[in-house]
Amino acid sequence: MATNKRHAAAQAKVNRTQAYGLDEAIALVKGNATAKFDETIEISLNLGIDPRHADQMVRGFVSLPNGTGKTLRVGVFARGAKAEEAQAAGADVVGAEDLMEKVQAGEINFDRCIATPDMMALVGRLGKILGPRGLMPNPKLGTVTMDVKGAIEAAKSGQVEYRAEKAGIVHAGVGKASFDAAKLAENVRAFVDAVQKARPTGAKGTYMKKAALSSTMGPGVQLDLSAFAG
Question: Which residue ranges run through the membrane (predicted)?
């Protein structure tokens, strides 16, 4: 009951029909993040695309200037010197056939998967497992690379992946409720800017339709997109 009362009180502070400026929206979301844990601040963007068409897919990575407040677990498929490089760079799981067997057994102890190009024949067998989880390494996203160290460091330093879902919605965590408001604003602007730059060739009409901020347990606050014009 206490949770319901808290949520109702938070809802009462937000005008669902109003689009708020970024600073005001962040203040509302932070104020409504009253759970006993440090809630994640999330952004959702409603895009005017149909991701079922290849020329309308929106996907990529963006490095948030102030990190996410969450440490990603990184798994790396590599052998020999590259496996040693991955371990030295702080990868959480490194392997080849042994790692493939763990994944096949349902033991997936990583949030980002990186592979060297020579490992893709092996990793390709895991497509049905890694694909639906958004974990399949992809050369376009920099997760199939010989620069294992650079890819691990990027993942660990606050790099966020975004990918449009069926309805054209892109969402991601952009920080924690404990973050300073100015740092959250920088992260939100960096994320929106990256998605704007990723506008696909097939997108027609209005690209960014709506945007909202929320905390893990709090209500959504609609953002005024005119602040991000340009």
Answer: none
